[in-house]
Design brief:
By secondary structure, this protein is of the alpha/beta class. The protein is built from 10 helices and 8 strands. It has a 6-stranded parallel beta sheet.
Length: 278
């Protein structure tokens, strides 16, 4: 698999991941005055149930009415940047997860109160930005990876990933052990004619430098689109073949506009789905 390892190099230069882990330990392990919830308490709770894992791809805006309709029949696990958007539409979230390592990411939970988050459980890996953990005013569970679990003597561990979508899928399939996992907003491509990278309402006020860095990553190494027609005809794009089930299958592969990072995310997601078989 041709994974992009540049992100790990960049992260180690910009953030002290060990420092994040140490700063998160009081919340992760619990204090006498504030006991911590544990992954063990949630193991197998999804057996016999369906989980809907909600990511922040552009197509999410089309899924909102369906999520409202189906929310009573499924466990909903969202990525952190969609929490406020889903809540504003009256969609209950059982779990929300964030894995970004930089403190500026805490803006996604800015001004939330205990009443706002209710019974939603915030999930976070040990390396997440401490400011984000502190910004969540409700229930929290640290999703210890194997190494961290061994370090603190935990029996339960969870596979991680290189995107927040990998983490929420692993929570639903590996920890909750849901019988069925449905991915929503997991586009891995720019699926809207306007070419946006995320659904409206899921892009908070991140620093301008971070926005510029993200835009640069999304726009590198383009090829010519090989589509016959459609919104991206004649534009630059990355080629990613798409399997179409049902409906009319076009002659030849379908190409969508995507990025190197999204292609790497797809590779790992393929591996995780084959592993969990869910």
């Amino acid at each position: 698999m041709k994974f992009d390892t540049r992100s790990a190099i960049i992260l180690n230069r910009q953030v002290n991941t060990t420092g994040n882990v140490m700063l998160n330990m009081p919340a992760a392990l619990g204090l006498p005055e504030l006991p911590a919830l544990r992954m063990e308490d949630y193991a197998g709770k999804g057996k016999g149930k369906t989980a809907i894992c909600v990511s922040a791809g552009p197509s999410l805006k089309h899924a909102i009415p369906h999520l409202k309709r189906l929310q009573e029949d499924a466990i909903i696990v969202s990525v952190g940047r969609t929490f406020k958007l889903l809540k504003s539409h009256g969609i209950r979230q059982d779990y929300t997860l964030e894995c970004e390592m930089f403190d500026w990411d805490s803006v996604i939970f800015k001004d939330l109160t205990k009443e706002d988050v209710g019974d939603t459980v915030f999930l976070y890996p040990p390396v997440v930005a401490p400011a984000t953990v502190q910004a969540w005013p409700g229930k929290k569970v640290c999703t210890f990876d194997l190494n961290a679990a061994e370090l603190v003597g935990n029996r339960q561990a969870m596979t991680g990933g290189n995107s927040v979508s990998h983490h929420i899928y692993n929570w639903a399939a590996e920890i909750l052990k849901c019988d069925r996992v449905i991915l929503v907003g997991q586009d891995l491509a720019y699926t809207e004619p306007t070419g946006e990278t995320h659904a409206p309402g899921t892009t908070p006020d991140f620093p301008e430098a971070q926005k510029a860095e993200d835009a640069n990553m999304q726009n590198e190494d383009w090829d010519e689109c090989q589509t016959q027609d459609g919104p991206f005809n004649g534009e630059k794009c990355h080629r990613m073949d798409v399997a179409i089930e049902g409906g009319i299958v076009p002659a030849g592969p379908v190409h969508v506009r995507t990025s190197p990072a999204y292609k790497c995310f797809r590779d790992l997601l393929d591996i995780l789905i084959k592993r969990h078989k869910t």
